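Q&A FORM
Asked by: J.P.
Topic: structure of Secreted protein

PROVIDED:
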Amino acid sequence: MTVSYRAVISTLAAVMIATLGPATAQQVEPAPKAPALRDIPLDEWMDRTLGRTVYYTIDGAAFGREYYAPDGQGVVFQHVDGTCMEGEWFYREEASAYCFIWPLSLSCFRHVDRNEETLILAVDPDGTPTGDLPQRVERIAIVPLSCGPAVTS
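REPLIED BY: S.T.
REPLY: Here is the structure written out as tokens.
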């Protein structure tokens, strides 16, 4: 009696599916869903930030702070090392991106809420994620940001 290799494999596969399929399916639990991200609309972001300073962290460490001028366009960012940059910002609705024009660069971000936290996600101007670590809004304070040359006397 000759048995083909293909017939043996087919039979074994059928037996495995019949015996393991339902039991395995019952044992596998679905992965928990990540909390949903909600893009923050322009008017809401302006209500939160105009005339205020936003404090950012990355992985729990201070990253910088940013002052949004009351005019709705001007912005000053101060890195944790004290270095300051002045620029302007605008909103790209088609990409849900807030873009910042700095002296030598353009940076864009999605501003999103996830549960009780606000995250800033780096994106290209078209809205494509860059893969950079997210910034977390630590707090928003009603204080101006003071940047300028160090006092020497």
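FOLLOW-UP: Residues 38-141 form a domain with the Lipocalin fold (CATH 2.40.128).
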